[in-house]
Amino acid sequence: MPLKKDTAQKILRDGSISLLLYALPLLLMGAWFYITGEKPWLHPPVKPSIPVLKAVFENLSSWGLPVLSLGVGVAEFLLGLYEKRWTRNEKILDLVCFFGSKIIVRPTVVYFTLWLLPLLLPGLRGVFTWVPLFWGFLIIAVADDLTQYWYHRLHHQVPFLWRFHRTHHSASYMGMAMASRQNIIYTIFFSQIYLTAAMTYLGLGYAALLVTGVKSLITLAAHSSIPWDKPLYSRRWLHPLAWVLERLISTPATHHAHHAASNDDGVGHYKGNFGNMFFIWDVLFGTGIITRRYPKAYGLEYYQGEEWYAQFLWPIFKSRKEGSELSAGGPEVSDEVPGYASPAFEAEEEDFVRKKYLYDLQ
Amino acid sequence: MTSQDFIILARKIFIGIVLAVVPFLIFFLGLKFIQHF
């Protein structure tokens, strides 16, 4: 299935703009040094300036976030948020993805950082430790999140990449259980974690630690089935804050729309709202919609409940479900196959035919 | 895995590398440039 011409043009245009966005924190930092006359590279700091904050974020990234997501997950489960949709196959898949990614990805990144980077970039360890924390935070935030935006967007817009990301969208529920649900190849080749690891090697580790902590909290909250943003929309005096927040970061409303089963209700936007920590990329590139509402249904309309191992390990293992995107010889993107009709559309059509038949009988 | 799967995987990895290397070069060269002054 070839990439559509207008999609390719938009990717090229937005990609070119992104080169400038990557450079923006550097341009601002350079301008700041020029105006103030500061030259921090001549006297780099020896120790991080906020050790308490460092300790908090170190604990958050090592054991804090997994414990937090498990805690919220148990609360969601007890509140009955998964109802009967959390079948045996879905449970195994969610748990394998949660623990599998922790067991496989973390050692891979550590190996990349400790062994491969010194070979690829000899003598460059810590060359940029002079970058002040504020600017380091801005640089890593843009580096990490804009790269993830592109990684994510391409997996939705480039047909041959979709099946690596499909697993994250096949869940018919939102919550901690599906937040880590990904095909293992999608997770292993996350571009932004290697970029951030390389920036850490160059000396921006402290900033990277802070960004990773803040980002994880925002993305976990956006995937949660607990709509923390709802009060912002119901109270008029909070609307200005809501206006800023929903454009700046991912909220449950905007991210749930991305996981909607359908776009037909005017709330769902599963081929947009790609932002992870920042939503501002979607605003800038016109890929987002903000409705302040939550979709009625989540997942994929054409989901066949493919085997957990096929979803986790495709294309190494394939699904046996006939016609599935994950089966041998299956379509790349089911709902873009010519002649595809959504189940909702088919039901509507059936209803129309039935009513017409009854009318004809009268 | 079929040969077609390997091709898809290779293309995916290539895109992933480009997404990491291009911003890395921007940041690395940009910071080196600022440090030059």
Give a verbal description of the structure.
The complex is a heterodimer of chains A (about 350) and B (about 35). By secondary structure, chain A is mostly helical. Chain A has two domains: about 220 residues, no CATH class; about 55 residues, no CATH class. Chain A is built from 14 helices and no strands. In chain A, helix 2 crosses helix 8 and helix 4 packs across helix 8. Chain B is mainly alpha-helical and about 35 residues long. Chain B has one domain. Helices cover about 90% and strands about 0% of the residues of chain B. The model of chain B has no long low-confidence stretch (mean pLDDT about 95). Chains A and B meet through helix 1, helix 4 and helix 8 of A and helix 1 of B.
Strand content of chain A: under 5%
Shape of chain B: rod-shaped
The amount of beta strand of chain B, in percent, is: under 5%
Mean pLDDT of chain B: 94
Computed CA radius of gyration of chain A, to the nearest angstrom:
23 Å
Kindly give the count of domains of chain B: 1
What percent of residues of chain B adopt helix (DSSP H or I)? over 70%
**C-alpha termini separation of chain A:** 47 Å
| Annotation field: number of helices of chain A | 14
Major beta-sheet overview of chain A:
none
Terminal CA distance of chain B reads 53 Å
Helix-strand sequence of chain B: H
